[in-house]
Amino acid sequence: MEQIKQIGFYTDCLGKAHWSEPSTVIDRELAKMLVQIARIFIKDREIVEKEIELWVKHMGKVKDADLSVQKEALLHWYAEMQELGLTPKGEKFTDFIQWLGVDLNK
């Protein structure tokens, strides 16, 4: 999510001198998907300590890892959130994860 935010707000030179411009990178479909994901995260409810613990457990250790490792950790975080009943089961988040390129059949 951090990398999507970065390419959505800033013009940058990536990889082998490839310029990234927000207006060409963030299309309507991606913007809609990001809003859907935001709705998952910003419910009209209080965030409990366990949710933060799970985020640290899954995402804290991969903050400097490759994007593929971060995607996998995000998937595991959300799965555990669902298992513990901290977020409803649903397809919107898994659709987003698949869009990121994470293989859900592993």
Describe this protein's structure.
- With 106 residues, the chain is mainly α.
- The chain contains six helices and two strands, in the order H-E-E-H-H-H-H-H.
- Strands 1-2 form a two-stranded antiparallel ribbon.
- A hairpin with a 3-residue loop joins strand 1 (12-14) and strand 2 (18-20).
- Helix 5 packs antiparallel against helix 6 (91-100).
- It is globular.
Features:
mainly alpha, 6 helices, 106 residues, two-stranded antiparallel ribbon
Based on helices, strands and strand pairing, what is the structural class? mainly alpha
Percent in strands: 5-15%
Number of strands: 2
Low-pLDDT ranges = none
Mean pLDDT: 80
What can be said about the biggest beta sheet? 2 strands, antiparallel
Q: Give me the number of helical elements.
A: 6
Tell me the Rg in angstroms: 15 Å
Global morphology: globular
Tell me which oligomeric state these chains represent. single chain
Question: How are the SSEs placed, and which strands pair?
Answer:
Blueprint: H1 2-9, E1 12-14, E2 18-20, H2 22-25, H3 28-41, H4 49-59, H5 67-83, H6 91-100
Antiparallel strand pairs: 1-2
Helix pairs in contact: 4-5, 5-6
